[in-house]
Automatic annotation (TrEMBL):
One of its GO terms (molecular function) is kinase activity. PANTHER family: BIFUNCTIONAL UDP-N-ACETYLGLUCOSAMINE 2-EPIMERASE_N-ACETYLMANNOSAMINE KINASE, ROK (REPRESSOR, ORF, KINASE) FAMILY. It comes from Gardnerella vaginalis. It holds the Pfam family ROK. Belongs to the ROK (NagC/XylR) family. This is N-acetylglucosamine kinase.
Amino acid sequence: MTHSTPSHISIGVDVGGTKVLCAAFNTNNELIAHSQVSTKQGEVEIVDEVCKLISEVINQIILKYGNDTKFTIGIGVPGLVNQHTGQVSESVNLGSHSIDFKTEIRKRFGLNSVIDNDVNAAAFGAYNYYGSDSSSLVFLNLGTGVSAGIIINGSIFHGSTGVAGEIGHIVADTQGRDCPCGQRGCVETIISGTGLSKLWPAKNEYPIASLLRNVSAKNKEAEKVWNKFISTLVSALQIITVTFDPEIIVIGGGVSKTGAILLKGVKEYICRLEQKSSFLSSLKIPDRVVIANQEVFFGALGAALIGRRYDDKAKEEN
């Protein structure tokens, strides 16, 4: 038995360094189907995995609603995305220098797809969830890597080459660890999940959980690593604030799952800095920062909305 068919279903794929999530949303942005797998390395493997997930989600929807459903597809991928061709380059955390989803999706499903950077997609999802009444929002992703998605006046800010928001590759410690980008001591080597796992190796549990447990136990080395993590994160928040002056800064990604503890650490550190700087105090950074709701698939939602917006514009032009 089928249910009444939604007029339009938007499929969003969030390709991350550790997992690939495909989700479908109706016109009210309600989640109606999803599927997830661990990320594989390499161009052919990633494209094949994404197509399999899309097929699985489409089949879920057809079983529920029937064959008359209209689909649009958006995909968020780490790396530099050519907005004209959809080609993804320098996706360091996927072990690939060039990925082409559009050609394969058109061949397999007969559908156009819209490709954007994964954090841009998450930012667009967060904007529609948190800040559609605001003029600007930045989504700071602390995941396998670190980058920021920037929304200005309701639109994604890509910059002139698509590199806008790659804040993870700002050098924070010239004596720090080598970064996959070829530099040394990047922000990403400190506040990403990958970076933190090297600063604080942990067996059989997440590095951030182990770190915080040892901080609570007054472990001096743990306190040192935590202070470095928080100070670097706060520097990133300062850079975001003075560069884009967003009304809302959403901290997301796997590391953000620490939630209230992370927010408390950030606010306490900023509070200490504000006591020495009236300028920093005037920025009111703590009032701008929120931790992403862990129950919302921001990356997939944003990708789906990007795909839907592209389809709507194409209709208007025709």
